[in-house]
Amino acid sequence: MATYSKGANGAFSGKVGSVIGSNWRSIDYLRGLPKKSSKPSTEPQLAQRAKFALAALYLSPIKDILNIGFKDKQLNKITGYNAAVKIFLNQAVSGSYPDFVIDFSQVVVSRGSLSVFHGLNASLQGADLVLNWQSILNATILLPMTRLL
Q1: What is the mean pLDDT of the chain?
Q2: Closest-CA residue to 110 (of 54, 143, 64)
Q3: Strands 139-144 and 128-134
Q4: 50-102 pLDDT, tens per residue?
Q5: Phi/psi of residue 15, nearest 5 degrees
Q6: N or C: which end of the chain has fewer CB within 10 A?
Q7: Distances (CA, A) of 136 to 97, 114, 133
């Protein structure tokens, strides 16, 4: 993968031959097409994939909260969700493949300097947990409890 600044015809997005152009957070990227491997996955690869699947299973339902909780100027190259996944993989997952265990005391949902959430309250609406608070943007987040348990 490579970054570039103003190619011959400017930045582009999409596929041109065997090259793919894209843009993320105002940075233009070029990369080649992926190559399909015929080799079977190794045990460490399977273990890492299982860890990522576990992280996505538990963190994706609260992605909006994580993007707010890790919203800090020092994280300018990484999203809040990605920062939470990194911490989750390094601190909260233990055990060996395929029997991974989550240490919920090590799960982090925010880091850095945050403004105070005024009027924070939580309520159950059926099978969902609803969080409301007053901040610069009035926010309501609906969390399906079935995905959190």
Answers
A1: 80
A2: 64
A3: antiparallel
A4: 999 999 999 998 898 888 888 776 666 788 899 899 999 999 999 999 999 99
A5: -105, 130
A6: C
A7: 43, 12, 10
CA-closest candidate to residue 3, choices 23, 13, 14 = 23
12 DSSP 8-state letter: -
For 35-42, what is the mean pLDDT? Answer: 91
| pTM higher than 0.90 | no
Longest dimension (CA), the chain: 56
Own/partner pairs for 46-51, CB < 8 Å, 24+ apart?
46/97, 47/96, 47/97, 47/98, 50/97, 50/98, 50/100, 51/89, 51/93, 51/100
> What is the three-state SS of 77-139?
CCCHHHHHHHHHHHHHEEEECCEEEECHHHCCCCCCCCCCCEEEEEEEECCEEEEEEECCCCE
Count the Cβ atoms, other than its own, within 10 Å of residue 116. Answer: 8
Residues present in the chain in total: 149
Q: pLDDT confidence of 45, banded at 50, 70, 90?
A: very high
- CA quadruple 29, 30, 32, 34: dihedral, nearest 10: 20
